Task: inverse folding
């Protein structure tokens, strides 16, 4: 099981690094303007596509199959339970790995009714974006936000309950404020933040 | 119940009663002990299982509770970290530092003053707006009415301070903290490369607050939650913080919940002080896995070495943040109860069951005693009865009424006793009858034996006389009670005879010699060989006791099995018999003499009458010629008479010499021939001699000569004037053989067997006495030789004389020896 986990993590890192290549090249392009430019919207779109694909593959081809075959389940305290991380945790942890890599691009899951308060929208922009996304989930909300003197491009994509694992966990967790999620509901969004410097 | 002593002494073996009691006890005690042991074991096992499961559940529950407690505390702290004022202030600090490095010198200056604990510098930080804000949060100014920090939390918080993104102190509630923190583990863990992460520090001793503390470090994110702009650090007294939660969970006297970290350091425990490690390091890996459970360990972690049941569970959410990640450390609850207390119920049960068991054993023993008594008493009765039956003394029937097999057995005993009695009665009569018969037999045997006039003695293997009959008693004058007397005390015998008897006795009374003796007695005795038996008298089975002579005979008497055979000795008084026989011999001799005298008279009468007649004729005869003729006839008659007389004297004459002398056999033969020629007409007889040289023999020469003269005379007379006389000698190993053969008519078969009989003769009256051969044989036998006659009718007769050769001869001898030297030996010649 440990070896499986190591393999899985290695695969995750590989996916993400591959996905982030675009971002990295964008960064390089900024320092070397002659090659041409790429809009942050496009970059966020690329990153989001990779994130979605990775998580979908993880959810459908790893978690679901492992659980169906009864080999190993995905649980919240997967470290203690010797289990798989939940798909949402998969995204959050990979986001932390990306952040810790120091590339500048960050992403995280935010929700209106998060289990942990740290995953609530942090800014007014995020809150409003989620409101919009709940109604119009197809298009991301983008904009430039600032922290002090620093400016960032932020794109927020609607995030649906793609698997029953998401719904079950949120509906059963003691800390969850909303417990009536259904499959394919918009549960929140993925916020991708790209520094503008 | 009476204690009758059994036949064997107690102690050497177990009686039936003891065995019955013992087996009842064993039957009761063994299942009791086994059941008790198994129940105790099973009970302990189940208590262990149940307690373990309960402890694990309790540990899990406590872990969740503590987890929530910490989560709540983190949430409280997070509210400070999320305060927009603080975020803004820290963002400004970040931006300001990014813009220019101007403030660096001022900062360094401030740091030095803070370290020097300059009052103004301290005040500039502790009183700045951020510090004030922290204070306000701490005291609950900014909290909603329901979200006031509990008093416990407030009092347990020993430090609360804020650093910027460089780890520099920007606000603090107390003056304890250091100025720069960017090198501390908690700061780096919480800053986490500007990404930020909750960091809970393990328990450690803090010198500033003089207590065991743990800390919560929260990153302060910028307004976008993009990066860390500062770190909020809170130091909490572990004991004070956790004791309200852990100390309330007590069960029994010793059961409690405690909180430990991965290294086994106690975070909070109602018994152990915070900060000390578990007493047994081997216990730590057992109780700190990442999942809840229970374990049976060889120590309790509280200094005890008894086997303990310990429940444990990790704090799931908190463990993720301890020392940065779950890999660097985790916190666990630990639920334990002293095994003495845990197993007290089963011990009580065990004690009680043991007590009841003891009572049961006592009951069993007493019941066994009673039951054994009921079984053993009739059995003992039966035993006594059996012994009485064995002695034939059981008169009254056995009385046992137990109504079971023992009663049946008693009845069988009674029946057996009756049958035995009946059988014994018949047997006794028979024995009496047989005994009488035996007595009668013995008496008659004794009477018969006593009536026998022959002395009979029975002797055992040790020469002790066992029986002696009437005749023997009288003969040997034995007093009536003779007990164990030896044979030779009864028979007064000299030593030599005793030895001989003993030798015979040892060969178990071999009577062969006696039998041979008896056989010899049947052969008719030669009356002229009166002493023939004397030479074997020493071997005869005769005993001379006193004046009497006894012929004795041994016989074997088969003994009863297991005893040695007896030997019987029969003595026959032959004194009278011997006397009678001697008289008979004398009479025979006298009779023979009469015949002899008659023969002599007859023989001598004829020539004598002739001589008388011739003498009368001469008286009146004048014719001289006639007288001369008569005279010649008288001479012839005289010669004949002389011959007759010599014949007789040869029989009766005793040898003048009483000593045998060595002579040569051939010389004797030549002299015999010469002598014979003087008495018988041998003119027409051819003499053939074949000598083997000079053969020495030891004899009385006269007697041998007489014997041989008889033989030669017989031979010549048998040939009736014509024929061939052959004289021969031969030598073998120790024997010299002289052969005298004639060519006469031979002897017929019937006569041949009688030729050695005395007075047997084929010659006419007056021609032979019939004693010649008898005398010859007797003489030759005396010299140790023998005489045989072989004859074939019509071919002649051969007399074969064998004599032992004497040792190399000494030349001195009798007159014949001297004369022998004169005559020339003639190897062979005929006339």
Result:
């Amino acid at each position: 099981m440990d070896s499986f986990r190591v393999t899985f993590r290695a695969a995750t890192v590989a996916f993400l690094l591959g996905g982030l290549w675009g971002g990295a090249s964008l960064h390089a392009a900024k320092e070397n303007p002659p090659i041409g430019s790429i809009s942050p919207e496009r970059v966020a779109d690329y990153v989001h596509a990779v994130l979605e694909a990775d998580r979908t593959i993880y959810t459908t081809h790893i978690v679901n199959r492992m659980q169906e075959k009864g080999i190993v389940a995905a649980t919240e305290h997967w470290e203690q339970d010797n289990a798989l991380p939940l798909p949402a945790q998969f995204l959050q942890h990979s986001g932390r790995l990306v952040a810790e890599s120091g590339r500048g691009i960050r992403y995280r899951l935010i929700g209106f009714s998060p289990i942990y308060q740290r995953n609530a929208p942090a800014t007014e922009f995020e809150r409003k974006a989620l409101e919009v996304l709940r109604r119009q989930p197809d298009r991301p909300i983008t904009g430039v936000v600032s922290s002090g003197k620093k400016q960032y491009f932020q794109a927020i994509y609607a995030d649906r309950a793609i698997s029953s694992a998401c719904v079950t966990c949120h509906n059963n967790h003691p800390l969850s404020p909303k417990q009536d999620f259904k499959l394919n509901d918009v549960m929140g969004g993925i916020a991708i933040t790209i520094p503008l410097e | 119940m009476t204690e009758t002593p059994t036949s064997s002494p107690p102690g050497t073996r177990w009686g039936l009663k003891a065995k019955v009691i013992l087996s009842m006890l064993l039957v009761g005690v063994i299942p009791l002990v086994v059941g008790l042991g198994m129940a105790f074991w099973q009970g302990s096992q189940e208590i262990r299982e149940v307690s373990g499961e309960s402890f694990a559940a309790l540990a899990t529950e406590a872990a969740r509770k503590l987890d929530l407690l910490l989560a709540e505390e983190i949430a409280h702290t997070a509210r400070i970290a999320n305060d927009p004022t603080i975020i803004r202030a820290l963002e400004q600090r970040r931006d300001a530092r990014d813009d220019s490095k101007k403030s660096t010198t001022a900062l360094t200056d401030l740091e030095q003053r803070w370290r020097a604990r300059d009052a103004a510098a301290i005040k500039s930080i502790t009183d700045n707006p951020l510090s004030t804000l922290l204070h306000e949060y701490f005291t609950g100014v900014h909290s909603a009415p329901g979200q006031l920090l509990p008093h416990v939390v407030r009092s347990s918080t020993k430090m609360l301070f804020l650093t910027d993104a460089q780890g520099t102190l920007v606000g603090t509630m107390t003056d304890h903290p250091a100025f720069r923190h960017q090198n501390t583990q908690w700061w780096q863990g919480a800053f986490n490369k500007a990404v930020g992460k909750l960091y809970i520090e393990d328990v450690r001793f803090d010198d500033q607050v003089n207590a065991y503390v743990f800390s919560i470090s929260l990153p302060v994110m910028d307004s976008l939650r993009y990066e860390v702009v500062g770190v909020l650090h809170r130091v909490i007294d572990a004991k004070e913080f956790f004791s309200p939660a852990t100390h309330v969970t007590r069960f029994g006297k010793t059961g409690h919940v405690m909180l430990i970290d991965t290294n086994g350091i106690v975070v909070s425990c109602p018994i152990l002080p915070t900060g000390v490690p578990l007493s047994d390091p081997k216990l730590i890996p057992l109780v700190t896995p990442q999942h809840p459970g229970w374990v049976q360990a060889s120590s309790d972690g509280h200094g005890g070495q008894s086997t303990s049941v310990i429940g444990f569970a990790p704090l799931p959410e908190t463990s993720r943040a301890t020392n940065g990640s779950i890999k660097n450390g985790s916190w666990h609850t630990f639920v334990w109860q002293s095994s003495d207390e845990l197993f007290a119920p089963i011990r009580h049960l065990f004690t009680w069951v043991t007590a009841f068991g003891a009572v049961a054993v006592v009951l069993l023993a007493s019941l066994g005693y009673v039951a054994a008594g009921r079984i053993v008493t009739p059995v003992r009765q039966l035993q006594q009865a059996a012994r009485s039956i064995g002695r034939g003394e059981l008169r009254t029937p056995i009385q046992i009424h137990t109504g079971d097999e023992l009663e049946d057995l008693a009845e069988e005993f009674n029946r057996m006793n009756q049958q035995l009695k009946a059988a014994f009665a018949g047997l006794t009569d028979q024995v009496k009858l047989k005994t009488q018969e035996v007595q009668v037999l013995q008496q008659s045997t004794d009477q018969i034996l006593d009536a026998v006039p022959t002395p009979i003695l029975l002797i055992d293997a040790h020469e002790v006389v066992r029986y002696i009959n009437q005749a023997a008693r009288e003969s040997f004058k034995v007093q009536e009670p003779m007990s164990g007397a030896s044979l030779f005390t009864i028979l007064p015998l000299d030593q030599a005879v005793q030895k001989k008897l003993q030798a015979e006795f040892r060969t178990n009374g071999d009577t062969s010699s006696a039998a041979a003796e008896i056989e010899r007695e049947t052969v008719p005795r030669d009356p002229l060989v009166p002493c023939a038996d004397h030479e074997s008298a020493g071997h005869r089975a005769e005993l001379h006791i006193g004046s009497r002579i006894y012929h004795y005979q041994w016989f074997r008497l088969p003994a009863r099995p297991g005893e040695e055979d007896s030997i019987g000795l029969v003595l026959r008084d032959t004194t009278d018999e011997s006397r009678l026989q001697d008289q008979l011999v004398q009479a025979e001799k006298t009779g023979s003499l009469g015949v002899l005298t008659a023969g002599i008279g007859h023989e001598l009468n004829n020539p004598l009458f002739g001589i008388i007649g011739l003498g009368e004729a001469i008286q009146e005869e004048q014719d001289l010629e006639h007288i001369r003729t008569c005279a010649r006839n008288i001479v012839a008659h005289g010669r004949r008479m002389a011959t007759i007389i010599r014949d007789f004297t040869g029989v009766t004459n005793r040898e003048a010499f009483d000593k045998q002398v060595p002579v040569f056999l051939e010389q004797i033969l030549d002299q015999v021939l010469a002598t014979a020629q003087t008495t018988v007409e041998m003119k027409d007889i051819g003499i053939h001699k074949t000598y083997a040289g000079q053969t020495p023999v030891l004899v009385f020469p006269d007697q041998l000569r007489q014997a041989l003269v008889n033989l030669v005379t017989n031979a010549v007379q048998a040939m009736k004037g014509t024929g061939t006389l052959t004289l021969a000698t031969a030598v073998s190993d120790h024997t010299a053989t002289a052969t005298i053969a004639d060519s006469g008519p031979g002897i017929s078969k019937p006569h041949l067997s009688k030729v050695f009989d005395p007075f047997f003769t084929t010659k006419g009256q007056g021609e032979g006495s019939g004693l010649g051969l008898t005398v010859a044989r007797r003489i030759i036998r005396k010299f140790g030789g023998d005489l045989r006659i072989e004859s074939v009718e019509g071919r002649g007769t051969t007399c074969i004389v064998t004599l032992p050769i004497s040792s190399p001869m000494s030349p001195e001898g009798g007159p014949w020896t001297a004369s022998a030297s004169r005559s020339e030996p003639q190897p062979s010649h005929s006339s």
Notes: Confidence is low (pLDDT under 50) at residues 1-8, 510-538, 651-656, 809-831 of chain B. The CA atoms of residues 504 and 510 of chain B lie 6 Å apart. The first strand of chain B starts at residue 157 and ends at 164.
